[in-house]
Every structure is written in structure tokens, then in C-alpha cells.
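User: Working on a comparison across species. This one is Peptidyl-tRNA hydrolase from Massilia horti. Can you predict its structure so I can line it up against the others?
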Amino acid sequence: MSIRLIVGLGNPGPEYEQTRHNAGFWLVDNLANTLPGCRLQRESRFNALVAKTSIAGNDVWLLEPQTYMNRSGQSVGGLARFFKVNPDEILVVHDELDIAPGVAKLKKGGSSGGHNGLKDITAALGTQDYWRLRLGIGHPRTQNLQQVVADYVLHRPRREEQMLIEESIDKGLRIIPLVCEGKFDVAMMRLHTP
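Assistant: Here's the predicted structure for Peptidyl-tRNA hydrolase from Massilia horti:
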């Protein structure tokens, strides 16, 4: 078993481009830019930006849903069904409130933790049994901010946070070839060991 579909979560449109909630888009954009001849293109039947590429010698789809976050499952479920990609061959990259900026974690399954993109993907796939690459953005409470969560995720990170989020994206990018080869234990050890 290896990853055949990498999904970056975010909201479409220039007003959301630089917000914390778009960390998943940032990673997939960076990934596409490092792969020769890889260009995300609009695919209307999946309401997403899509690219087919090769990572570690395996064919892999890259996907950025162009619905709003809470409807991400439409794109993910549509492409997965069309190309017969099983849930355990899907890696969803998303922002994570419960992890500090600069930290990235890989896990399979589990609850959505209140993340509306994950909730919708779980509903569309009919299971929680897919992989997640969680990019820490921190929580307003742990940063002593009086912001509500919805407001916090839809705002730009402060400059020092942005640098840390970019570090976690770099860490995530380094383990992508491993998950595309099915080496999940090695990927987790590399990612989770300081």
C-alpha cells in the first residue's frame, strides 16, 4: 500500500490565499513546483486543481479542491471513485490547530478534530481511514489571542509564525517520497523525531 492521491486543503480565491487555513494548498503548491513538468490545472468534473505526476517511481494524483473547505469531500470523493483510489491510498494535507507552528505530524485515521474539510472528506469516503499530514498552525488560546477559531484560521499568520509553518511544510515535503513508496513507519519516525 502506498499513497496515490495527495490532497491539499484550503479555500479558493485571493482573499484566502495567505490564510492559515490554506497550509495544505501551500504544501501541494510547493510539491508541484519541485516536480518536473507538474502543473496543477482546473478539472471541472472534480471542481479542483489536479495534476498527475510521478513520485518515487509511482503515479500520484495531486488535488486542491476549489470548493470551500467544508465541501472538500466532493472533489476528493469524486476523483477517488473515478480513478479507483482507496481511502488508505489518500494523504490529506491540512492545517492543525492542536499542533504548534513548525511541527508536522503524520497519522492514519482518527476524528476530524472539528476540521470541516476533514469532516466532509470522511463523509464522502464513508470512512476516517485515510492518511493525514497535519501542519501545525497553533491555537489562538495557546498564543494568548482573544480571537475565535474561525477568525484565527482565516487570517494571515504573523511573520514569525509564517516562517515556522514554512519549516513544517519543508519537513512534510521531505517525507512525501517515503509515503508514496508505502514506507509509512520510516516517514513517521523521520517526521516525529526532533
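For your comparison, note: The chain has a mean pLDDT of 96.

User: Helpful, thanks.
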